[in-house]
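Hi U.,

Before I forget, here's the chain from the pilot set. I'm dumping it here mostly so it's searchable later in email.
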Amino acid sequence: MTRFSDGNQVALLRTGDEYFPALERAIDEARSEVHLETYIFADDPTGHRIAQALARAAGRGVAVRVLVDGFGAANLRASLREILEPSGVRVLVYRPERGGLRLRRHRLRRLHRKLVVIDGAIGFCGGINVLDDRNGTGHGPPRFDFAVEVHGPIVRDMHDAARRLWTLVRWTTGRGGRSREGSRLHASTPRTAGRQALFLTRDNLRNRRAIEDAYLDAIEHARTEIFIANAYFLPGRRFRRALREARMRGVRVRLLLQGRREYLLVHYAMRALYGSFIDAGIELHDYIATYLHAKVAVVDGRWATVGSSNIDPFSLLLSREANVVVVDEAFAAELRASLEFAEQTGSVAILRDAWADRPWSARVLAWMAFQLGRMFVGMTGYARPEDF
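Structure:
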């Protein structure tokens, strides 16, 4: 695992309302290079806003590279390419979708991380895609999600990760050729007074379990409280056991999960685990104020993570993900306060008696969804028995 570094400035960004203005401002101030990776780059007002900022940067002579996922971004709409490419923005697609309805294992290995590195000096990482947080309505609460803006030594790791993946995709898609295209700079990330932080990625080579292992290490050393907010929470056996053992040590364990039905199989499969969590004394809340898209956690009021990785088999076993871990009481307190406010104002508690009285049809549906999920993960060939 990459080592923690000191002297990082890490700012918490809550929802797209804080993230997109900060991102647009940083792009407008870019002087040399912009790397942007996203799972979704939507053809909506937010997508056009960020595309126009990228085009302005390229027009100033900045090297702008955009990498999107071939499934999540639907190979990027023509209306966005018409903004990006004429200005000189380079666009690549990670694993373009060309297989129609054919099921191949490699099609499940997606680019799910949301990572931006500007001038090798500023990094953004989190769970927020380039899309309208309000589903194009322009009103109502945004999706509940987070990102961080980072300055300091870990930006070098973010920059290296973005450069490596860009180079890999450029060659595997046949866009390598004789081009000498490369980074125009080496990351310049001076160490200042700041926070201890770590940048983690998950891939299928050197970092297959880096994010999961970081979570497990924090959980296993927890002494007072574990507070997790996660959109798709289907942890494997090791993760579930670690939470139960923490609770047995007297640690307060709180889960803030997606209460709205977005993807039916995942929604009901998650509920197959609720009973065992309740029996273990774990506190459960379903967030219903809007869609919860967060992938964050706070442990013991000091360790915190913000990133793209869900706690489910797709994020932990298949997708490319990125998380930032921060060890700092002030940052952890800020994130925890946001989670606490969301729990108190936008969620419903899942209580033992009410859960025990739910209709038998709901129990059967949850059990069937969980078994289907297990079967599907097993079919990928990437899972081990403890993974589900």
